[in-house]
């Protein structure tokens, strides 16, 4: 439910009710095994100014100019790198000012959103700290600089009418290839007649909750290719679909024999 835009939130209710021992993420893997992924956080930075007529801009404080300073400062932040998952990317994804349209008004508010790809072991506090430090430095230099940083909060309505809500912070996770669970899953896929490679997802999945938050043994195994996900005319090959069904059955059999 809402995995594409709200990874792991509805999954919390699933694991709370059913308490699974193992989880198989059915996202596209081309029948290979996925043993990890970077997580994702949506970080919001806001700057606050003072409105004025644009014919007299000196009477106001332009929040967009303040945001431009902050963006430049944030670009100097170097996120950490994981030996398997790669870099913890920090990328600006949107920026909005208010009022909009401006209509001859100096904007008194500006909001920018950053996509931060999360690595194993990162916490809400450790991820947001560098941005808080950037704000503190600019505030110390400019008494007119007013800003705030926080995690975005999402709210989505389900088809049942229920509402799910939470901060947009979805942890990363990864297993070692030698992990007993990974090796059991690998044996199961091979028994189904496939010779999978062991890799990691390039995108975020519900594994952020199952493995990253709940600590449940989790792997990814599914039909078709990652680069087809969320594209126009997305499709799944029939042999991939039937192959994934055989793989799921074989993985379960192997785990039950342990």
From TrEMBL:
The keyword Amino-acid biosynthesis does not apply. InterPro entries: Bact_exopeptidase_dim_dom, Peptidase_M20, Peptidase_M20_dimer, Peptidase_M20A. Residues 35-140 form the Peptidase M20 dimerisation domain. It holds the Pfam family M20_dimer. This is Acetylornithine deacetylase. It comes from the Bacteria. Keywords: Cobalt, Hydrolase, Metal-binding. NCBIfam families: PRK13004.1. One of its GO terms (molecular function) is acetylornithine deacetylase activity. The lineage of its organism: Bacteria, Pseudomonadati, Pseudomonadota, Gammaproteobacteria, Enterobacterales. Its EC number is 3.5.1.16.
